[in-house]
Amino acid sequence: MSILDSLLRWVDIIEFRQKQIDRAEAQKKRAPGDPDNEDDIELPPDRPQAKGAPLVCRVCGYTGGPEHRFCPRCLAETMERRK
Fold first, then answer.
1. Backbone phi, then psi, for 54, in 5-degree steps?
2. 22 is in which domain, residue-wise?
3. Is there a domain that residue 38 lies in?
4. How many structural domains compose the chain?
5. Following DSSP, what letter does each residue of 28-68 receive, concatenated?
6. Model pTM?
7. Are 50 and 81 in contact (CB under 8 A)?
8. Which residues contact 55 (CB under 8 A, 6 or more apart)?
9. Is 47 among the domain residues?
10. pLDDT digits (tens, 9 = 90+) for 7-65
11. With b meaning 16 or more CB within 10 Å and e meaning fewer, what string describes 64-77?
12. What is the C-alpha separation between 30 and 61, in angstroms, rounded?
């Protein structure tokens, strides 16, 4: 339900109720387990991890292993791979 739908409730209650009925019917028609695609947001893909290059903090220069994402000195997600 969007912000406009909540405003529609106060402006035109008949259209708001009709939209609610339409949504309920569409939900009944969907197979169980099908995602609701109306409000889905795609997340950006993760960057692929390059192997072999060490992780280095771009702020303080701390060098860490491949599992570090956060710099223990800066306490921030500033680790990146450098060649």
1. -75, 155
2. 1-31
3. no
4. 2
5. HHSPTT---TTS--PPPPPPPPPSSSPEEETTT--EE-TT-
6. 0.36
7. yes
8. 63, 64, 65, 66, 68, 69, 79, 80, 81
9. no
10. 888 888 898 899 999 988 988 887 666 666 555 566 667 766 556 678 889 999 898 87
11. beeebeebeeeeee
12. 53
